[in-house]
Amino acid sequence: MRWLAGLAAVLALGAAPLPPQPQAVAPGVWLMPGGIVPQRQPDGNTVVFAGPRGLVVLDTGRHLWHRQAILDFAAARRSPIVAVVNSHWHLDHVSGNPDIKRAYPGLKVYASNAIDEALKGFLPRSAADGRKYLNDPSFPVATLEDLRADLATIENGQALRPDVVIDRSSVRTLAGLRLQVNLAPNAATDGDVWLYDPKSRVAAVGDLVTLPAAFLDTGCPQGWKTALDRIWATPFRIVIPGHGAPMTRDQFGVYRTAFGALVDCSISKREASACAADWAAAVKPLLGDDARALRQASGMTQYYVTDVLRAHGGKSLDCKAA
Ligand SMILES: [Zn+2]
């Protein structure tokens, strides 16, 4: 039921359908916001860094309109996309890879090798779940369209794999831009990648930061906590999460503290509902006046603590860490 668990969350959300509009975050850095359209699966955020020799694109979204917006942005700037970095292998972050590569055949995709395990485990399992609902007329047309598109993406899964495997953290020059390319092992997936640009002091961290809840579906809580500590140790000004708006240092600090408390609570004897209530209270300042987001923060977190973490000895089923 993995595909449907995500689906239920999507149906409960429902935001205005808007094509992603590039927002300047700092000189030479743009956010192309991912979104959630009612009855559809989400797109993750895309972050674009402009270098002297072209564009570096972190994450390529799920839907056709998201990847088209990335291509339109590059065309409007008359700047080629020379590197795609994937923060992690979830389909809301990598599905645009093949089309963007087709448009810029010289570009290289950088990611961890965690997708190799996912192509053998999580993704075919999720496809098998999804196929059961292909002919179910009770699902909205848009939902089935997303399901078919995800199945096609998984079918062609080898095309999502990186050209260059990130197997450690290091400084790399991409498009003539010096970036810290960081590997976070055993975090939101078995291998997350996050970028730090020392010039703009922007950290683009993928799903190591998500709201209203930490999406622990394939997560390893301890490694994830370590990753948040590593991010905190860099002198960033702005963090761009995998979903949602850029954060200040103070806001990221709130998230990091809440995450640490959640991990500690999940391995304690406390009720899952109490862990969830603590999380919701802690991240409330990050959610503004959004009462629905606050309810989701607690509802989703209770599900993650009970069904994802405690059901599998404190980590998700897909977490390979000891
Ligand atoms: Zn995501």
Features:
322 residues; alpha/beta; Metallo-beta-lactamase, Chain A; 7-stranded mixed beta sheet; 6-stranded mixed beta sheet; disordered N terminus; binds zinc ion
Q: Could you give a short account of the major beta sheet?
A: 7 strands, mixed
CATH level 1 class label? Alpha Beta
Per CATH, the superfamily is Ribonuclease Z/Hydroxyacylglutathione hydrolase-like
- Quickly count the helices: 11
Estimated helix fraction: 40-55%
Indicate the overall shape.
Answer: globular
The assigned structural class equals alpha/beta
Radius of gyration: 18 Å
CATH topology: Metallo-beta-lactamase, Chain A
Distinct compounds present? zinc ion
Low-confidence stretches: 1-16
Q: How are the strands of the largest sheet arranged?
A: 1-2-3-4-5-6-7
The overall pLDDT average reads 93
SSE order, one letter for each helix or strand:
HEEEEHEHHEHHHEEEEEHEEHHH
Range of strand content: 15-25%
The N- and C-terminal alpha carbons lie at a distance of 25 Å
Number of strands: 13
| Shape-level CATH architecture | 4-Layer Sandwich
Q: How many separate domains make up the residues?
A: 1
Report on this structure.
With 322 residues, the chain is of the alpha/beta class. The chain has a single domain, classed as Metallo-beta-lactamase, Chain A (4-Layer Sandwich), CATH 3.60.15.10. 42% of the residues lie in helices and 19% in strands. The chain has eleven helices and 13 strands. The chain has helices at residues 2-12, 64-77, 91-94, 97-103, 114-120, 122-131, 141-155, 221-233, 249-266, 272-287, 291-309, and strands spanning 23-26, 29-32, 46-51, 54-58, 81-85, 108-111, 164-165, 170-174, 177-185, 191-197, 202-206, 238-241, 247-248. A seven-stranded mixed sheet has the order 1-2-3-4-5-6-7, with helices on one face. A six-stranded mixed sheet has the order 8-9-10-11-12-13. Helix 6 packs antiparallel against helix 7, helix 9 (249-266) packs antiparallel against helix 10 (272-287) and helix 10 (272-287) runs antiparallel to helix 11. Residues 1-16 have low confidence and may be disordered.
